[in-house]
Amino acid sequence: MNIPSSSDSYRWYVLSVLMAGSFASLLTSSVVNVAIPRMMSSFSIGRDQAEWISTSYMLTSAVAMPLVGWMVNRFGHKIFYLGGLILFIFGTTVCSVSWDFNSLITARIVQAFGGGVMMPAGMAIVALLFKPEERGRAMGIYSVGVMVAPALGPTVGGYLTEWLSWRAVFFLNLPFGFIALFMGAALIRSDRSTPRIQRPFDWWGYLFLSMGLIGGLLAFSDGQEKGWTSPYIVTCSACAIIGLIMFIAVEATIKHPILDLGIFKFRNYSLSMALSIVRSVGLFGGMFFLPLFLQNLAGFTPILSGLWMMPVPLTMSVAMPIAGRLADRYDARFLAATGALIAGLSYMAYAQLDPLSSRLVILVPQFVRGIGLAFMMAPLMAVAINSVPLSMVPTATSFLSVGMSLGGSFGISMLNTSISKSIAGHSSRMSEQIGLNSPMFTRLSRHITQSASRYPSSQTAEIGPYLGLVIPLRQIVINAQVLGFQDAFVLSGIVLLLTILLCLALKSGFYQESPKA
């Protein structure tokens, strides 16, 4: 299966189109979260309902990604990619003019389905356009949009929501979407001449896989809030485990599986899949909690914290094409391992981060992290695609995207749990050190609470002598939170450092296609 490419310039034009499409779809995943409070007010909905604005997109995109392999083989790369782009544009347009909450959620589902298939489908086209020895550079350039868009989202969304309307965060995506659509229709050459693989759709496999993905993602995203032993989370976890077990059982026995398990016989692909999951645990978990630290403890506004997160995507946008080019010339294993080392150490640099840290202490590790992640991600994407035959590339890219999504959700959940337990542990230890767990302090604290409830604010002088006792409590809470975040950053660094072993386990070289007779 091949897309004709008669000139070198043609390939780079198509690559820019694919990057614009991925930029639009991934910008949506982060830009909307900032506007959710305004949507709640506009539609008069509560927090539980509002969560579905993000959850519906996450779940739909996750279950859409595995369809890429079958759809591409059935309809061709161009038709399928442009079809996903049209769905994304249509869903985005309806989101921007949605008249009630139900219409918004329905549009988000349509938007997510189109956006979910665009990135793996785009990666598959890149693999077809470029030779194995050129894919590192191509993937490095393609990944610029993949990494910059989610990082720009919170800042841009904050400004648009503040100065215009929450609807503007959806209008923002439309220019990029239409540019990608019109240029894609004009530039991407049809592969109609390629014989289609007419195979039946694996409904049972897809059903069990969707069951496993939805159950797992819901458990990861809601586990800390609802409690890991709550009936809801236990049910979601059970669905995830049963779904994935049944999925593997079906795929191992069916004639035309949606995921050919034989793809995992390729050593580099299996390791790349593991790396995409483990790397995302450390990467997205740490990136998610740094803005929370800046806002909740350092006093940053949401917009300001978004601006202070910009060094990572800016550095990556410069470094990824360089890293990809180097991966084409040198051993990608050592480039990826070096990147993992740099990225891991950049998180470890936050081991002493506190609300009074200088701006340089916050910024410098982010510039360093951008370089490390660039040298880690671009080579690994090329290695994963180069390790399988072209006929398996659509399936390979779709499940790599699923792995990154699962890893990111698990990373955020893992660090959220880690922070909560760490804060509780640090609070208990500090309380014991200054005697705040003593019966005397407990009685005095109760007396302060009761007295404050009886006196108006103008008469609080009568309980003034006791108010000084509250100061240690407040300081303990702040210090425990700071230490909890520090522990989370260190944990992110450790996870990324562990990926060095997986990087070094990769083998050099790429899959050699058998010559056609």
What does this structure look like?
This protein is mainly alpha-helical and 517 residues long. The protein folds into three domains: 1-192, Growth Hormone, Chain: A; 202-257; 262-455 and 462-517, MFS general substrate transporter like domains (Growth Hormone, Chain: A, Up-down Bundle). Helices cover 77% and strands 0% of the residues. It has helices at residues 8-31, 36-43, 47-64, 68-75, 77-96, 101-129, 135-163, 168-171, 173-187, 203-226, 231-253, 267-296, 302-308, 311-329, 332-348, 359-386, 393-433, 439-454, 464-467, 470-505. The longest helix has 41 residues, at 393-433. It is globular, with a radius of gyration of 25 Å. The model is unreliable at 451-461 (pLDDT under 50).
The structural domain count equals: 3
In total, the number of strands is: 0
> Which CATH class of the largest domain is shown?
Mainly Alpha
**Class per helix and strand makeup:** mainly alpha
Question: For the terminal residues, how far apart are their CA atoms?
Answer: 16 Å
- H and E string: HHHHHHHHHHHHHHHHHHHH
What is the average per-residue confidence, as pLDDT, rounded to a whole number?
Answer: 77
Low-pLDDT stretches are: 451-461
Corresponding CATH architecture of the largest domain: Up-down Bundle
In terms of DSSP E residues, the strand content is: under 5%
Helix content: over 70%
Global shape: globular
> And the CATH topology of the largest domain?
Growth Hormone, Chain: A
Q: For the CA atoms, what is the radius of gyration?
A: 25 Å
Count helical runs.
20
The CATH fourth-level homologous superfamily of the largest domain: MFS general substrate transporter like domains
Largest sheet: none
